[in-house]
Amino acid sequence: MVLKYIDSDGGERNCESLEEIVADLQAGRLTDDAMVFDARGGRWVQAPEHRDYVLARDAYAPSTRESSPSEDKPDSEPDPMLDVSSDAPPPSTQSHNLNRLLGVVSLLGFVAYTVHIAQRCEWSATQIAEFVGGSAGTAFVIWAVLRMIVALVPTIRTARLWIYPHVLVCVAAVQGGKEIDSYKRIRQSVRASADNAVTDLEDYLAGRPPKRRPKAHLERTTPTAESMADAARHLQFTSEMLNRAAVQSTEDWTQFQRELTELGMETLLDEPGNLSKMRASRLCIGQLRKVVDDFEKLVASRRLEQIEWVRRAELSGFERSKLLRSVNEGQQASQPLLKEFFEIERAILDAVDDMLAFLIRKHGTYEVVLGQLLFADDAGLAAYQRHQSRVARTAEKESDWFVRWTSEVRKRTDKLKKATGKLKR
Predict the structure, then answer these.
(1) Domain membership flag for residue 255
(2) Can you give the pTM of this predicted structure?
């Protein structure tokens, strides 16, 4: 029997025989506090964990140890620690190997669970690293506390290191559950925002007043919510902006039409034989031109408001610039149509004004019979028909413009529907 140990003075000693071990035990040089080299495990261990030391201490030097429960055992029950014929490793080694195996299984489980969460929540490599780092850090803090508690229990002291993988799996399970729940709620919020945007555009196309909706709140409680928040809020803000724009557009358009009606836009040519009425209509045309000019300025200011909404949006710089670019592109695409609309409105007023001026100038050379104008000469009739044709052509252009404008909005609606369909898959 050979035993290598470090005594209380820090010196390394070798006992070549059982007699030397017993002598050192009786001399007090070899005690339970000494570190003994375990040749089988290739490491230094506490003396009570070394089999040869325990055999020598319990069998030949009983005075060097305190009484233990094993002294009270009957002789008919042999102590497995004293069974020198057994080649089985000590129970502590078996427990250590089992804990090591369970620890490896837990680590593999953590890796598999992380892959599952990453696929479920559509994480990037950076987000995976953040999740792993956060879980590992939290698990380390918990493990450090548990390690101090476990260290007080000698029977499981060798399992201290392998507690960590189990703690890591528990932390990852809790954190992963929060991530999945957050991901589901954000996806639902995004889908609702897309659906609301489509509904607002369809209401706008059908002439129905859009519904006013409160501003949605998007939580940022987990890494998944934080990472998805900007992308989700982009669509959410777009929905809110479309809703607000649709409400404003409907209200502005209704007010514009009301002002035109109040000034008699539809009755300018109702009494072509009434000289005073035609002169009053020409005065109304001046006011109608001002209404058109004011409405054009209001539309321009609304477009600037949209830009300002985006600049004040609670988005990251990247998402804000992307949305700002999208709004600018949309406004540039619709600018020619809007410009054409106001040109058509002014052309209608100019055509009606020229026709009224002609009728006032020719007053007395025609008469009204059953709602029809009968001119005294063919030249006057031909000139009147030219004015009448001009008014009809401009009115037809206005009808055609509304068809094209509705088609443009429909394209945007279809595009948004496609985006919504992708989100729902």
Answers:
(1) no
(2) 0.53
